[in-house]
Design goal:
about 120 residues
Length: about 120
């Protein structure tokens, strides 16, 4: 179960970086559990075990939920910490999720993303 959560978090890097809306000052309300729940449908896709399926609904839902800069940065940091320790994720697929789901972001999606620069 923990390895599945780690894989999902890598996929979430893409979705977290999708959060390129105008920031407003606030505390992060979006926790790691929430991020994982949005992107759980993406797990089989990013681990080469299934089709894209309902993943885009989760990506778009997360995009809509992460309304503030602290939310987006919090989600990014959650994903980075989990992604670095799980090797089964196809990083190319994870990085391609925004495009696959019709969401445009101005960031390169990578486990090495500097989350402090996510706005």
């Amino acid at each position: 179960m923990a390895s599945m959560i780690k894989a999902l978090c890598v996929a979430l890097i893409a979705a977290v970086l999708v959060m390129a809306v105008v920031p407003r000052p606030a505390e992060a309300a979006l926790g790691c559990g929430t991020v994982i729940s949005y992107l759980s449908p993406c797990l089989s896709y990013v681990t080469d075990q299934g089709p894209l399926g309902d993943c885009c609904g989760g990506v778009k839902g997360l995009y809509g939920a992460a309304k503030t800069t602290p939310d987006r940065q919090s989600a990014c940091n959650c994903l980075k910490s989990l992604a670095s320790s799980y090797k089964r994720v196809n990083l190319s697929k994870a990085a391609g999720l925004p495009k696959q789901c019709g969401v445009n972001i101005p960031y390169k999606i990578s486990p090495s993303t500097d989350c402090s620069k996510v706005k």
